[in-house]
Prior knowledge:
By secondary structure, this protein is an alpha/beta fold. It contains 10 helices and 11 strands. Helix 5 (167-173) links the parallel strand 9 (157-163) and strand 10. The longest helix is centred in the middle third of the chain and has 15 residues, at 108-122. The chain is globular, with a radius of gyration of 18 Å.
Amino acid sequence: MTIKKENFEKTFRIGDDLTVNRLGFGAMRITGKGVWGQPENKNEALKVLKRAVELGVNFIDTADSYGPHVSEELIAEALYPYPKGLVIGTKGGLLRSGPNEWSGDASPAHLKEALEGSLKRLKLDTIDLYQLHRIDAKVPAEKTFEFLKRIQQEGKVKHIGLSEVSVGDIKKAQQYFKVVSVQNMYSIDNRKWETVLEYCNNNKIAFIPWYPLSGGNTEKLEVLRKIATQHNTTIHQIALSWLLHHANNILLIPGTSNLNHLEENMKSISIELTDRDLEELAQNNPYTI
Length: 289
């Protein structure tokens, strides 16, 4: 699925009307350790958000569960009133009980509370992209999807996306609303969701990978290290660049609470991988299930 150089796109249209740069920012890491509480250095976190926009980021991904609530509050504090064209995507459907502790709740009652809280914290009347953080096995998917359809009809959200879903899940949700984005774990060394990426690419659905370098494939890490040395970059930068070169519907949201790391991530868009680089990276790359 690798993109030919002449066909490489730096932007993508979410839902056919929101044009975003393909290198965005994920706002999970601006919270405290374990994605819990306030960041160790709040001023740095606010500077990172402002600098990201200065560097061309116009798509920020967050969730009510990051903190919880902290990430959304910091985004508003740093960037409101928002610059024209900035798309903020948030998520609902997970509960938090402590650092690194997550549990699902995609019931309409919880999602209603989560959505209202997100609107208030982000100081928005409508959320551009609202993503279901997880399908909840305890709740019939139909009830969750019906709720999402209703809030879209009410104008509280403009577009709807999903996270950690199969092609079957997407097709089921499409019976209720247009799915414009899918956020699944995916990287050059963990391609379990390759069929989902292909489905999204064929249907003009944004694919937003999280955990872009999982470390699960030792052979691939060696190739990444070699190519990073040749380009005088880091392994992480090459992994991000590969994702951008792999499919034009991939939107990247690398996150950090450190200004230097942000600057490093943003340089990934300008790395020009050669055909030879891409051939080497394509070898010895079985899907990790």
